[in-house]
Known about the structure:
This protein is an alpha/beta fold.
Amino acid sequence: MIPELSNPSVLMRDPQRVEEILQTMLQCGSNTLQVISDFDMTLTRFAFNGKRCPTCHNILDNSSIITSDCKEKLAKLLGTYYPIEIDCSRSIEEKLPLMVEWWTKAHELLVQQKIKKDLLAMTVRESEAKLRDGFQVFFDHLHEHNVPLLIFSAGIGDILEEVIRQAGVFHPNVKVFSNYMDFDEDGVLKAFKGELIHIYNKREGALLNTGHFQDLRTRPNVLLLGDSLGDLAMADGVQDMENILKIGFLNDKVDERKQSYLNAYDVVLVKDETLEVPNALIHYLTANK
Ligand code: C5P
Ligand code: MG
């Protein structure tokens, strides 16, 4: 039905079920569709030429606007908590408080750095941030077909917006839920706004934004893209959901995590650095009936 679903990177627990969901969603029409996507390591690349690509946080962590002492501390946090994030031998309940600890400590360190708002654009420009191949088609096609795209990220909203703005794809159909920086009157970072979003509380984040989902209540069909099991909760705020197709990027610790990803996601993309499969699904779902 969709040739890209036969790509070697694609795994599906139940290919027939995937086909059924896609057919039903196609029947309903693209005016009933909304896309909800995670950002870091979902819309951005996990690795390039064998080297890890940065998350929103890492863009700051590695930048010239952070002191070397602070860089060292942030790198130490990453070294401690990232292995916990991807450790499938620990339950989400066990990992959750540790993730809160990671985000809290990292944000405290960033606030101590007195980061200036007007240096963020340069920081992103000089970073190694990389959207996945096919990003242009992904964003442009959704925009052309008036399909709303919610980017729901536990990263840093100001950085994320700058990445997609500089890539020329921050179209009006894009809405972002994320952790936003709060600056004082001199444009110096003083805190982060609102409730913290980390990888395991996206459900709470979704429920805090009922207005957005209320506006989209005529779009009960959801294409969800994520790279963490916590991303599955991003659609928990969707009103009167009828169909959902969940696409999961499995970037790291493939053998250990394959089964849990297959159980949770309808389509699993193993070490696939492109948006080729999501784009093929979006083209299919927005084709004229
Ligand atoms: O956009 P997304 O929700 O994927 O952002 C969360 C990611 O940010 C996590 O997967 C985590 O590895 C990363 N992170 C980081 N540094 C922090 C906190 C989170 O790189 N201090
Ligand atoms: Mg992610």
